[in-house]
Amino acid sequence: MLPCPGGARIVTDFLAYVDQHSDTIMMQATQHASLIAQCILIAAVLGVGIGLLVFRNETATALTTGTTSIIFTIPSLAMLGLLITPLGLGVAPTVTAIVLYSLLPILRNTISGLNSVDPALVDAAHGIGMGRTRALFRVQLPLAWPAILAGLRVSTQLAMGIGAIAAFVNGPGLGQLIFSAQGRLGTVNAPNMALAGTLGIVVLALLFDLIFVLIGKLTTSRGIRIHA
């Protein structure tokens, strides 16, 4: 195999950059992780809550999923730009945009999961004395949980990328490295900054997905996992 001194030098330069700026990279990675975790939590409460309210009504289901689908089609830079006027720069437009984009997979999977529960199981729950609300939370929601969790995983991966783009409105996180690199094109460290930000987001995405896999194993009964 032929030596590749150029490639080796690139790797060496990148590792040296990471070593010299490790504190900054770790701080921005922590900010990025915290941002995504909080946004997904908000989106989960909203998406699952709305799904629980509308899944029995076809008109309400079509209205809510249609609205979130329209939001989903808006280009992220355009959405962030539109939010600058009412919310300014920084955390507020970043959180708003990420939550709005994260709603669709969670909402759709919540509605789909709840509607996929066998009606005979619901009737059986009513037959042993469970009311409508109790049957929803004791029977339907646990059976729909794997689908809801899948929606959360999709939304989290989506949010990771939107969080990087949010540096456009001075949002916190690893996107700041990528955005700063674009402003320093032609300098020695620009590629290293962009690569550090990109790899950091990839690593965080993998870690978050692993966390969701563990949550799924801990919160889903073995019988439901086998059935799924």
From TrEMBL:
<feature type="transmembrane region" description="Helical">
    <location>
        <begin position="158"/>
        <end position="181"/>
    </location>
</feature>
<dbReference type="InterPro" id="IPR035906">
    <property type="entry name" value="MetI-like_sf"/>
</dbReference>
<keyword id="KW-1133">Transmembrane helix</keyword>
<dbReference type="Pfam" id="PF00528">
    <property type="entry name" value="BPD_transp_1"/>
</dbReference>
<keyword id="KW-0812">Transmembrane</keyword>
<dbReference type="InterPro" id="IPR000515">
    <property type="entry name" value="MetI-like"/>
</dbReference>
<feature type="transmembrane region" description="Helical">
    <location>
        <begin position="62"/>
        <end position="84"/>
    </location>
</feature>
<protein>
    <submittedName>
        <fullName>ABC transporter permease</fullName>
    </submittedName>
</protein>
<keyword id="KW-0813">Transport</keyword>
<keyword id="KW-0472">Membrane</keyword>
<feature type="transmembrane region" description="Helical">
    <location>
        <begin position="35"/>
        <end position="55"/>
    </location>
</feature>
<dbReference type="InterPro" id="IPR051204">
    <property type="entry name" value="ABC_transp_perm/SBD"/>
</dbReference>
<feature type="transmembrane region" description="Helical">
    <location>
        <begin position="193"/>
        <end position="215"/>
    </location>
</feature>
<feature type="domain" description="ABC transmembrane type-1">
    <location>
        <begin position="29"/>
        <end position="212"/>
    </location>
</feature>
<comment type="similarity">
    <text>Belongs to the binding-protein-dependent transport system permease family.</text>
</comment>
